[in-house]
Specification:
Blueprint: E1 8-10, E2 26-33, H1 37-49, E3 53-56, E4 62-63, E5 70-72, H2 73-82, H3 85-91, E6 93-95, E7 97-102, E8 105-111, E9 123-125, H4 128-144, E10 149-152, E11 156-162, E12 167-173, E13 176-187, H5 194-198, E14 204-218, E15 227-231, E16 241-247, E17 251-259, H6 264-267, H7 270-281, E18 288-301, E19 306-307, E20 310-312, E21 318-319, H8 327-346, H9 356-380, H10 385-398, E22 446-447, E23 450-451, H11 452-455, E24 460-465, E25 474-475, E26 478-485, H12 491-497, E27 504-508, E28 514-518, H13 523-533
Parallel strand pairs: 2-3, 2-13, 3-10, 7-15, 13-20, 24-26
Antiparallel strand pairs: 1-4, 5-9, 6-9, 7-8, 11-12, 12-13, 14-17, 14-18, 15-16, 16-17, 18-21, 19-20, 22-23, 24-27, 25-26, 27-28
Helix pairs in contact: 1-4, 1-8, 2-3, 8-9
């Protein structure tokens, strides 16, 4: 029997017995295990495309507790495409500025989005339960419009048996167990992934010997909506570093780095947590403790994210430290990458080997995140006297000298992954801006009262800026939409997509990454680039 007793923020999909539980196993095109932000975003994306999807979650909604709070611009752009982005921004705390301190002294501050012309901010702070709720709200709207998405709460997967052309799952419910068959299975079941364990797959990497105390406190305070980070903070008993973030509903996230050799039970006593918080906030600040926990972290990943008919996404596939907000943000990029590929393969419009590119591209992204997270952690927690001397020297130089500031690493904040040099990329024949090169996600730009990304359709797009393209409406049955724009009156569009070129044609994938770009292009060149992006080239995985 499944025990559903847990602290819940939103009961979004209460358990209901379904007819399948009393019938022979039913086959589903896609089954997603795990109802967190990654699983739900993937389900919404697939369902909106018309691909039937079943979500199995061992709970009935979004749990309480301290989870992700920092959602990056690229995540918000993906959420916008899925219909949930505006609700997230409206609820979230928008911030672009971060400040770094060493002891009492401010070392410097940075602006993550110093330029204008973007619909979304660099970051919002939003508690993960809200993020998940807004995605599920959009799923409900999509279901009302006929999207084939089903969510079964309190359905825990307890067994997995691979077959030649499908996977058989054993599912435990309050009414007993039953079986489900999946043509394709996606494991979004977290860092302790039961599905990964059932398949006896490795999850390799580095364990960091440190402990961090999280305290989410509710208070009314005059602190600005910025990210404040202290190295060797001046507050009494505040540890080796500290972090302060504002969240919605007057909730503030505080992190204290405690070191490795601690008594966890002692540190979590309310009087000891309050002593640290009081020292940071000062006398007379009234607050309530909403949540406290101690965490350690690891940087690790699976060797591959596809195993025949089973895919792994989010924390089930890769895990990083929380510094830099790379966990949930990279997981949403996993979902964004996999959805269109699964959809096209299921509909017979792309070869199955296209699915191997999911692992190729997202392993590339995971390695980038692990590298940045490891560097941040090593800077935060010097492992020798010499590395501590180096760290403090960098901080001292950064107060006065701009050249040293890029060396200060309090957590390199999440940036969208660029798929440089990977197999689905076509030619880059435009001597254009690096930020919109082949493999990069499309960069937003203002178009009058709207923005570029709002005009991109769901599928493949030929973006033509002061250039013409052949009148191709489809390639091998995959539709191709044309978006014709002029740089006249849109200087930021010209800056971000043309550079010094007079015109350009960009081929964009359904996840808005650049496949190819040209100053001018023929029908045969477009067709060849599309076939590369669909995994039809011999050189593709």
């Amino acid at each position: 029997m499944v025990d559903v007793r847990y602290d819940i923020a939103f009961r979004l999909y209460p358990y209901e017995k379904v007819p399948d539980q009393d019938l022979p196993p039913k086959r589903h095109p896609v089954v997603i295990v795990g109802g967190g932000p990654i699983g739900m975003a993937l389900a919404l994306d697939l369902g909106r495309k018309g691909t039937p999807v079943l979500v199995l979650d061992d709970h009935e909604g979004v749990g309480q507790g301290s989870r992700a709070i920092c959602f990056a611009k690229r995540t918000l752009e993906i959420a916008d495409r899925l219909g949930a982005g505006q609700a997230m921004v409206d609820k979230g705390v928008v911030w672009n500025v971060g400040k770094v301190f060493h002891g009492d002294d401010q070392v410097f501050e940075f602006n993550l989005q110093p330029e204008g012309g973007h619909k979304n901010p660099a970051f919002i702070n939003l508690q993960q339960p809200y993020f998940e709720k807004f995605i599920v709200d959009e799923i409900r709207k999509a279901q009302d419009d006929g999207a084939p998405i089903e969510i079964r709460g309190c359905n825990a997967v307890t067994g997995l048996t691979p077959a030649a052309d499908h996977v058989v799952l054993t599912v435990e419910t309050p009414d007993g167990h039953y079986q489900v068959e999946a043509d394709w299975l996606v494991a979004c079941d977290g860092a302790r992934s039961p599905l990964r364990d059932m398949m006896r797959l490795s999850f390799d990497g580095r364990v960091f010997e440190d402990n961090f105390l999280i305290a989410d406190v509710k208070m009314t305070a005059d602190f600005p909506t910025e990210r404040w980070f202290w190295f060797e903070p001046p507050f009494k008993d505040s540890g080796q570093s500290a972090l302060l973030h504002k969240q919605p509903d007057d909730i503030w996230r505080i992190d204290f780095q405690l070191g490795w050799d601690i008594d966890r039970a002692e540190e979590l006593k309310e009087e000891n947590v309050r002593a640290r918080v009081d020292a940071m906030l000062g006398e007379g600040v009234a607050y309530t403790l909403e949540w406290t926990s101690i965490y350690t972290f690891q940087c690790r990943r699976m060797q591959a994210f596809r195993h025949d008919r089973v895919f792994f996404a989010g924390d089930a596939a890769h895990q990083v430290s929380p510094f830099g907000a790379r966990g949930a943000n990279s997981g949403i990029q996993d979902a964004d990458n996999l959805a269109w590929k699964l959809d096209l393969v299921i509909r017979g419009l792309a070869p199955e080997r296209l699915l191997d590119s999911y692992s190729e591209e997202r392993v590339h992204g995971a390695d980038e995140n692990i590298l940045n997270s490891t560097r941040a952690t090593d800077f935060l927690t010097p492992k020798s006297e010499m590395s501590q001397i180096f760290r403090n020297a960098v901080l001292a130089l950064a107060r006065e000298h701009a050249f040293a500031r890029p060396l200060v690493n309090s957590g390199r904040l999440s940036m969208p992954c660029v798929y440089d040099g990977l197999s689905l990329n076509g030619p880059d024949l435009l001597d254009g801006p690096k930020r919109t090169r082949v493999g990069a996600p499309a960069v937003d730009a203002p178009l009058g009262e709207s923005h570029l990304l709002d005009h991109l359709p769901e599928g493949f797009t030929l973006l033509c800026i002061d250039a013409s393209a052949p009148d191709l409406e489809a390639v091998d049955g995959v539709s191709l939409t044309h978006l014709n724009l002029s740089a006249e009156g849109n200087p930021l569009l010209a800056d971000r997509y043309l550079g010094d070129a007079e015109g350009a044609v960009y081929l964009l994938r359904p996840d808005q990454h650049v496949v190819a770009r040209w100053p001018a292009v023929s029908a045969d060149e477009v067709r060849a680039a599309m076939q590369t992006a669909l995994g039809k080239d011999v050189g593709c995985p």
